[in-house]
Design goal:
It is a single chain. The chain has helices at residues 44-64, 117-121, 127-139, 142-153, 162-182, 252-264, 281-290, 303-312, 317-324, 326-331, 335-348, 352-367, 375-380, 388-402, 412-426, 430-439, and strands spanning 4-13, 19-30, 80-91, 96-106, 194-205, 212-221, 226-228, 235-237, 241-245, 272-277, 296-301. The strands form 4 sheets. The protein has a 5-stranded mixed sheet with strand order 9-6-5-10-11, sandwiched between helices. 44% of the residues lie in helices and 20% in strands. It is an alpha+beta fold and 442 residues long. Helix 7 (281-290) links the parallel strand 10 and strand 11 (296-301). It is elongated, with a radius of gyration of 30 Å.
């Protein structure tokens, strides 16, 4: 006995006791005894074929409903007449479809009903396809995204070429940018007693006149959102909101987006904010912009960046050991003794290049002395003093996508939508926003 199966596409009238309207066999095959992992399932190519034929039939039924109520011309009320069909392309996640749409025309005034997919639904791509293109394009290079699509579609599809993915990222990312502006008018629940704000930046190689430009990133979270894994070896954030910008707009976008991120985390005029940064003035500017909206704010030079300044300086071994001793004073917030020790070491430094490096570090500490705190005391009290948690977010927001390949060069216009997508994804807002962003994409 040879056992086979068939898949049938059936339409029926649910209101009329399930009366069958049409019935069509869309796939038939023999069921074999499986012998390995290759023949146990239907097979990926057959799965796509099944999706293809089912979707073909479903789309054919849907387009029948498009003009079903249009019996009269909306301009002169003359009866509309059929005059052929128009075949239009529609692209879904795994499949492409040629959809035949009935054309209707008014013989009196010449009015014609919409007869292309684009005029009917304002696009020829499904929302799910645009969502996946935007997500992949924000996470991988456009050419890598093209290859991923080819792998899961079992063929090279023109709609998923790198240029199309780039356009989708730009349109959906631009839509998110506009959504973020609109969120200024929304009212969020102001119930956070304390928030932590980290602001940082990363330099991106550019195709523009200058060698590079700086992408600004901020992360806002509640201290109670820090969660430790079961082994107690690693902390992570279970809730955060991110903002990012590459625009040359006097920091207007990064400030506005950071305020929205803080509001989403519960910012109110009673909230205390702990703001951490690497010491750059443009980072402090973002934090200061939030100061009028909160109850109080504490500015802290991030210990992670401060310590790395010492680690990364290139000096002879003994001189480096002497310099590292200054960290002991800074860890305890004793800036005065740290500056005295800087002067002592510089007075003993003979080579000019070593002197200049130490002086530069000394100046960095001096410029940020008001924001250097007793880090050891904060650690004992369980208070935040470093941005290592948010630093991983900065790494994932900027570096992984924009700096991982040394040949990458960006324009501000090309990078900003990518950053908006990545900030939304890392804020866990993507699942709530993608539908609106796709529908409003230009």
């Amino acid at each position: 006995m040879e056992i086979s199966y068939r898949v049938v596409f059936e339409t029926y009238d649910k209101a009329d006791t399930g009366k069958v309207i049409s019935r069509k066999e869309v796939m038939e095959d023999v069921i074999y005894k499986p012998t390995n992992c290759l023949d146990f399932s239907m097979g990926f190519d057959k799965q796509i074929k099944l999706v293809q034929v089912v979707q073909d039939n479903l789309l054919a039924e849907k387009v029948k409903l498009v003009n079903i109520e249009k019996q009269q011309c909306p301009h002169c009320t003359t009866k509309l007449h059929k005059f052929g069909t128009h075949t239009s392309c529609f692209h879904d996640v795994l499949t492409d479809h040629d959809v035949e749409i009935q054309r209707l025309k008014c013989n009196s005034c010449g009015y014609e009903t919409p007869s292309t997919i684009r005029t009917l639904i304002n696009d020829k791509l499904s929302g799910d396809l645009k969502k996946i293109q935007a997500t992949l394009g924000a996470s991988n290079s456009y050419r890598e995204s093209e290859k991923i699509f080819e792998l899961f579609s079992c063929k090279d599809r023109q709609i998923n070429n790198h240029d199309r993915i780039k356009k989708t990222v730009e349109s959906v990312g631009g839509s998110l940018d506009r959504l973020n502006i609109e969120e200024k008018e929304m009212i969020f629940s102001p119930n956070a007693t304390e928030l932590v704000l980290n602001v940082d930046g990363g330099h991106i190689k550019t195709i523009e006149d200058q060698r590079s430009f700086e992408a600004m990133v901020s992360v806002v979270y509640r201290p109670e959102s820090i969660e430790t894994n079961k082994k107690g070896t690693r902390n992570h954030l279970i809730s955060k909101n991110c903002a990012a910008s590459i625009k040359n707009d006097n920091q207007a976008q990064i400030i506005s987006s950071t305020i929205i991120a803080a509001l989403k985390q519960g910012l109110s005029d009673k909230t205390h904010i702990t703001a951490l940064s690497d010491g750059a003035q443009n980072c402090w500017n973002v934090a200061k912009a939030i100061e009028p909206l909160c109850g109080s704010i504490t500015y802290i030079l991030d210990w992670f960046h401060l310590a790395m300044k010492f680690e990364n300086i290139s000096l002879p071994k003994q001189l480096k050991e002497d310099l590292m001793s200054i960290k002991w004073y800074l860890w305890r917030g004793d800036v005065d003794n740290a500056m005295i020790r800087f002067d002592e070491i510089m007075n003993l430094t003979k080579e000019e290049k070593h002197y200049d490096r130490i002086q530069k570090l000394s100046q960095y500490v001096s410029n940020n002395k008001e924001r250097i705190v007793d880090y050891s005391e904060r650690e004992k009290e369980g208070l935040v003093f470093t941005s290592n948690l948010a630093e991983s977010t900065v790494e994932s927001l900027i570096n992984q996508r924009c700096k991982g390949k040394q040949h990458m060069r960006w324009s501000r216009e090309g990078l900003n939508p990518v950053l908006q997508l990545r900030a939304t994804i890392h804020s866990n807002d993507w699942s709530d926003k993608w539908r609106t962003a796709v529908l409003n994409a230009a």
